[in-house]
Write a sequence for this structure.
């Protein structure tokens, strides 16, 4: 199958936005066995969009469009595709009801331009959007497939993953099956190094890595005639990958480290308290993203100032004066104070130099202590993290969550 | 002048490479007053590249190509452009000498395919490449301009900056100037509604909105002969926009709300403490992203459990029993406890139903109380926020930061 991608948005053409969607979709199409021959970006302009659409329907079987599905006058994607295919726009009742209940729930009046988002080309299949108001659209007509998705990656990616990718696999004569691995504690290039021999020789299965700032998704995809044949391929590689990555694999499906840690806490009924200095609330905000965590998360302290370390956690002034706030000794007293006060089963404390200022030769930016308490034992780990302030904070939060995970896994 | 960008490279089409060149060049062209109407990526394939080139010469005055200038068989960009324009390829002596001395300097034999890099379309201007072996090419013919650059950004960017950009400025009669507005507390479509009349009639200046989950960037761009003329346009619209958006405009440059709030706290020397229930650390983590905030941020409590609200903030058990944790009364006691304990100039507290569970008819998901203390006054605001858990948390955090900003602005 020949595919192409059309990204609609003036903000891409003037360079305000980096077009990460084109790469994401291209990678996914490749792994589904679809050849991508063109990526085109065009602005929010009806004539120029129509010119591209006419060309794309001549040369491709599958056209994926992103952007231009919103409520405003210059959102033209649905209308242009409908015009190209000679389809009427009609009100999609379910989308209308959803929009209406959204605006009711925010106690805000739905303006007329929002109504536009409930009109769809006749015969469309609707792709639900759980992270925004504009649904996606799938149209099959005369052996051609059009898929229209909203521009923001946080809306597009879940829709592609949960709906478009399985749909495309079902269209392909060969079947593709994937194993997923979520990895924490190993960066993307280190991970590729660890698997270099099997990545380099890949034909079937193919191996792809997708990096986020503090976790990596590894996908191994086999192309096979049957599920059994695919399983055979994948199990062979699973042995090698499991052996090399060991307990850095935190999940075998695409879920976040936050979710895994929250599930472990909830399932084991373990209570947790947290004291954050350098991470400034990041561990807490990642955990509280997960529904149900209130059962386990007793409380958290963001003790950014020395006074709050003394006041809330009972860190001794002499410890701060002698060793400083970024020290093994301070981390230990933070942790002890936290446990004494909250009496939770588990506790975690962070202190470090996040930068950009405050680093010295003895205590450079990136020096971090993480203290963890579990099963009556206090442990303090020292880390040296490279990169800017945000990276130091994110990596420290991820390593803290990973420490909790490893302790709970051991039981 | 109408420009377009053609990126040549199969590695982009299969998603191995993120196309940062398209964004970089688009941004530069915009700022040089050149409208970019298309970005196209095509693989290393002669027929498909020629198809795009034929189209681009019809519709654009300036065509910038990246990639496909290397020594291998599938590097076809120069050859394809020469064929399109009816130009012969000829040996460029200076480039040949440079290549030869490069290979001598690395004590490596120049292979025949490398010689290809010294052949140029007749009449080309050569753009020197100080970071690689493939020079760039500039061709002016029949009122059309072709600029060919190598793909790697570390080669392309210095060549663009030092040679292409000054060349383009010399070609453009008009200049573009922009005013930026960052807006909080108004969604993208409500914002467009508020400015519909001026957006609809826009020709010069043009008005564009770019939404993030909890803030909107508004850009107003004037095309003028001089900076003075542009200022005159922009100031006229500035009066209207300022009047309509009032203090929802939190900055007149593209910076985050976190940064603005942190700057206001730091500049005024205001100390802050935070108590977060439903936002679970998000306000704290957004503030602690900003370097220097430690001067003002005393401490924060993530009091997710009832016990921690009692223990750390002195909320009364009777209040929780009678009104519940999500209530005006609880928010008020959280805030009072926080101020009593930390004695900061300012304090903020959140409690709400983030969902997806825990909502009732009386207290539905999205019901949120934000308490703020400033200048000796306690205020509790009630909000109803729609959407999923993440949206409720993000909007509550953004509204809390916005409340802090408004109070500090008033002084």
């Amino acid at each position: 199958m020949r595919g192409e991608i059309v990204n609609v948005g003036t903000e891409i053409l003037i360079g305000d936005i980096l077009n990460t969607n084109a790469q994401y979709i291209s990678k996914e199409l490749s792994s589904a066995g679809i050849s991508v021959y063109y990526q085109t970006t065009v602005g929010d302009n009806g004539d120029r969009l129509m010119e591209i659409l006419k060309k794309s329907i001549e040369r491709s079987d599958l056209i994926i469009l992103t952007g231009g599905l919103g409520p405003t006058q210059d959102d033209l994607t649905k209308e242009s595709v409908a015009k190209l295919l000679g389809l009427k726009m009609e009100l999609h009742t379910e989308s209308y009801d959803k929009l209406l209940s959204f605006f009711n729930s925010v106690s805000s009046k739905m303006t007329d331009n929002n109504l536009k988002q409930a009109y769809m080309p006749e015969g469309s299949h609707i792709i639900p959007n759980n992270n925004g108001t504009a649904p996606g659209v799938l149209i099959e007509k005369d052996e051609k497939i059009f898929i229209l998705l909203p521009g923001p990656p946080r809306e597009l990616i879940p829709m592609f993953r949960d709906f478009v990718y399985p749909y495309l696999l079902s269209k392909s004569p060969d079947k593709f099956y994937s194993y997923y691995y979520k990895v924490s504690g190993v960066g993307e290039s280190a991970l590729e190094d660890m698997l270099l021999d099997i990545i380099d020789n890949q034909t079937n299965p193919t191996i792809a890595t997708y990096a986020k700032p503090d976790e990596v998704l590894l996908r191994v995809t086999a192309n096979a005639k049957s599920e059994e044949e695919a399983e055979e391929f994948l199990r062979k590689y699973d042995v090698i990958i499991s052996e090399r990555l060991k307990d850095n694999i935190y999940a075998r499906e695409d879920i976040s480290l936050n979710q895994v840690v929250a599930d472990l806490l909830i399932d084991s009924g373990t209570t947790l308290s947290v004291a954050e200095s350098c991470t400034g609330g990041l561990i807490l905000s990642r955990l509280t993203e997960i529904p149900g965590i209130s059962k386990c998360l007793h409380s958290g302290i963001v003790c950014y100032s020395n006074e709050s370390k003394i006041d809330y956690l009972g860190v001794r002034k002499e410890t701060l004066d002698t060793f400083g706030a970024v020290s093994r000794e301070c981390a230990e007293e933070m942790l002890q104070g936290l446990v004494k006060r909250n009496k939770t089963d588990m506790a975690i404390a962070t202190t470090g130099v996040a930068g950009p200022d405050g680093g010295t030769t003895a205590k450079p930016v990136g020096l971090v202590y993480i203290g963890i308490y579990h099963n009556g034992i206090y442990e303090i780990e020292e880390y040296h993290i490279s990169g800017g302030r945000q990276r130091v904070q994110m990596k420290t939060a991820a390593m803290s969550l990973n420490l909790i995970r490893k302790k709970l896994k051991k039981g």
